[in-house]
Amino acid sequence: MITSLFFELYRNIALFFEYYFIRQTTVLWRFFFEQFAHLNRVFGITANMKHFFEPLYRDYSFGGYIFAIPWRACLIVAGLISSICLFVLFLSMWIFWVGLPFFISYFLFSAA
User: Fold this and answer.
1) Cα–Cα distances in Å, from 78 out to 39, 52, 83, 87?
2) Counting Cβ atoms within 10 Å, is residue 57 exposed (0-12), middle (13-18) or buried (19+)?
3) Phi and psi for 27 in degrees, rounded to 5?
4) Would you say the pTM of this structure is higher than 0.85?
5) DSSP-derived 3-state class of residue 34
6) Which of 8, 22, 26, 76 has its Cα between 20 and 30 A from that of 37?
7) pLDDT, one tens digit for every residue, the chain (112 residues)
8) How far apart are CA 55 and CA 9, in angstroms?
């Protein structure tokens, strides 16, 4: 009977770690990549990099070329800065998420 209780305790602890460190981390990173894709759609980073030297709205006049390059450069820079900020935010959230059980257990067991 005692071995059964220890087995259930071990199994519940293992299930918690599997849920906390694997499943929830997967959910967090999936959410990050979804947000990153949304940010790419908003700023059009890849599309603007691909068509950097083409004029806006297929306006092949001199003005189309003059306005296109600075506008696309601003969109690319804003998108890259936003992507870097998003990456830093999610990386810090992930480090906090993974480190939280260790932090809590350290303060629980070191105070005794």
Assistant:
1) 10, 15, 8, 14
2) exposed
3) -65, -40
4) no
5) helix
6) 22
7) 788 888 999 999 999 989 988 999 999 999 999 999 999 999 999 999 999 988 888 888 888 888 889 999 999 999 999 999 999 999 999 999 999 988 988 888 886 5
8) 65
